[in-house]
Design brief:
The complex is a heterodimer. Chain A is an alpha+beta fold. Chain A is built from 7 helices and 16 strands. The relative contact order of chain A is 0.12. Chain B is α+β, with helices and mostly antiparallel strands. Classes of the chains: A alpha+beta, B alpha+beta. At the A-B interface, strand 6, helix 3, helix 5 and helix 6 of A face strand 2, strand 3, strand 4 and helix 5 of B.
């Protein structure tokens, strides 16, 4: 850390996001704009000088052998996270590392890997691992008129309400990932916490018709727990929060086929009740 | 073991194995009665009283087998055989075709590590393919494959 400390830092900021204090220091002031955009919406600048994680970003320097090419170097505490010429790559690696850190360390929030949309003031939570079809389903809900909460994490408070974590949707194509904002799909991001109305335990299987069955709160809690980042670190707190989440929600379980057909069915059958 | 009781279910979290179990009402009642003081006959009677119906002893054995399979017992139960080891179908047949039987059900999940629960692995996490890493680069460092920038 001492070697890193000796670099010429020209500016720094501390942000508080979901109760986690994160510091940033940069070697050129224009990198502060990039830093501000990496933090999740709702992050606040803090006056604290003590941080839980410190990002050091070196940019704008030239290296002798590279004849003027500008490298970005990103450090998370003392570990180098990337050395790249591409500011977009820097942004993505930084954001991914920060989200992962916040999701594990947020003191009074529980982060569950899930897609979340709001329908008539109630959250539809779709927990699932990568490649389970979450993003496709979230996208279809947004096109049907739902409000966007998250494509990556359901952020629950102790009362079981969901908070927005509105990063752009990461839509996978064959070899790449494309970022889409909810506005591009005719939707808007959510602004405040809402109760959970529906938990969908589902995954995609081509050609299957969506015929869900209602299942118990206990099964829903297991489904959420299997996607909770801090579950091993604080199982008691995670179970208490998830119990609150599941207590007021309907739980549907089943394999789904096409996203549009599934969303139409949910909106028709469940959407009428809320 | 962390226990949380829901209205008609029970959740157990085993901190040594990081497995979470959901027990339905019948399984939860049997599990609570398996306290080292009751034998199978006593558990059968107590469960019958609680559910307000006749309970077969085989139902308790079925629950016991499930608990053992899930690692919910401290001590091992001798291998079951004969009538004690009836399957769900055999038990339903024995109780009667028309009878409604609530079987003991235990659903279990392995609670993931933070990196497994996340969409993609962060830098320096062990990986096997590029697609697992947020950086899309799973490379060799030393003798291990890890996510690299």
């Amino acid at each position: 850390m001492e070697k890193l400390d000796r670099l010429g830092w020209v500016a720094g900021l501390t942000f508080t996001t979901f109760g986690v204090r994160i510091g940033v220091r940069v070697t050129s002031t224009e990198l502060l704009d990039l830093a501000s955009s990496v933090f999740p919406a709702g992050s606040k600048v803090s006056a604290s000088r003590t941080v839980e994680r410190l990002y050091s970003v070196v940019g704008g320097s030239t290296r002798g052998g590279d004849s003027g090419r500008r490298f970005f170097l990103l450090y998370g505490n003392v570990a180098r996270l990337t050395r790249t010429l591409n500011s977009q790559e820097l942004y993505e690696i930084w954001q991914s590392d920060m989200d992962f850190y916040i999701a594990q360390r947020a003191p009074r929030k529980l982060f569950v890997h899930a897609g979340v949309v709001a329908w008539k003031g109630h959250a539809i939570v779709i927990p699932g691992r990568s490649h389970s079809g979450k993003t496709t389903l979230v996208k279809a809900f947004l096109q049907a008129g739902a409000t966007y909460y998250s494509d990556e994490f359901a952020v629950f408070d102790e009362r079981g309400r969901v908070h927005p974590f509105p990063r752009p949707l990461s839509v996978r194509t064959l070899n790449t990932t494309r970022k889409i904002t909810p506005e591009e799909l005719g939707s808007l991001p959510g602004t405040g916490p809402i109760p959970t109305g529906l938990i969908m335990l589902t995954h995609y299987d081509a050609g299957v018709r969506w015929r869900p069955r209602q299942t118990s709160s206990g099964r829903a809690i297991l489904g959420l727990l299997a996607n909770t980042l801090a579950a091993r670190r604080q199982p008691e707190g995670a179970l208490a929060t998830l119990e609150q989440v599941a207590s007021g929600a309907q739980v549907l379980q089943g394999t789904r086929g096409e996203a549009r057909e599934t969303v139409e069915s949910i909106v028709y059958h469940w959407g009428k009740k809320v | 073991m962390i226990l949380r009781e829901l209205s008609d279910e029970c959740l157990l979290y085993d901190e040594t194995t990081n497995h979470a179990h959901c027990l339905n009402q019948v399984a939860a009642e049997v599990w609570k009665l398996c306290d080292g003081r009751n034998n199978i006959a006593e558990i059968t009677l107590a469960l019958g009283r609680h559910l307000n119906r006749r309970v077969e002893e085989e139902l308790i054995w079925m629950a016991v087998r499930r608990f053992q399979k899930c690692g919910l017992f401290l001590n091992t139960i001798p291998k079951l055989s004969g009538t004690n080891a009836l399957s769900r179908r055999e038990l339903a047949r024995k109780v009667g075709r028309g009878a409604v039987v609530a079987f003991p059900l235990v659903t279990s999940v392995l609670v993931p590590t933070p990196a497994t629960a996340a969409s993609c692995f962060p830098l320096l996490h062990i990986c096997t393919s590029n697609s697992q890493c947020c950086s899309n680069h799973c490379g060799l460092q030393g003798a291990s494959l890890i996510c690299l920038p």
